[in-house]
Design a protein that fits this description.
It is a single chain. The protein is an all-alpha fold. Helix content is about 80%, strand content about 0%. It is built from four helices and no strands. The radius of gyration is 21 Å and the shape is elongated.
Length: about 140
């Protein structure tokens, strides 16, 4: 009887610690994704600042910074911050990440070709993707 109680207690402690580890891991993934979102915002600010000051190098640096964060949106980890009641949320985020990559790649080409008007149009499209996601997924 004592062995059974000890085994049961050990099992309960093990399950509790595994659950705590899973919660901590989920919390870490969430905080990491939120950090990535802040970096995305900083990248967008840098692109805008470069466009307003006619600095193609600053715009390119902002695009590079933005593209460095897109892998977090393309991964399964993003599900941690998505609403559970919206079945389309993950696919929508994947599509948004794809469009962000498309417009940012085009922006690099436009900057390289000296077409700043086109590059700023790409910036507008990037910003639209950001706001679209925040409106639909984050329920603004």
């Amino acid at each position: 009887m004592k062995k059974a109680l000890r085994a049961l207690a050990a099992g309960a402690v093990l399950v509790g610690s595994l659950n705590a580890a899973a919660v901590a891991e989920k919390k870490d993934a969430r905080s990491e994704l939120m950090k990535e979102m802040r970096v995305m915002m900083e990248a967008m600010e840098q692109i805008q600042r470069g466009g307003l000051t006619n600095s193609s190098e600053e715009m390119k640096a902002g695009v590079t910074k933005l593209q460095g964060t897109l892998s977090s949106l393309e991964s399964e980890d993003v599900k941690v911050i998505l609403p559970k009641d919206q079945a389309y949320a993950y696919k929508f985020v994947q599509k948004t990440a794809s469009m962000l990559r498309l417009y940012s790649d085009d922006m690099i080409l436009s900057i390289g070709a000296g077409r700043m008007d086109d590059a700023l149009d790409d910036y507008t499209q990037l910003l639209k993707q950001c706001t679209s996601c925040h409106i639909r997924i984050r329920n603004w």
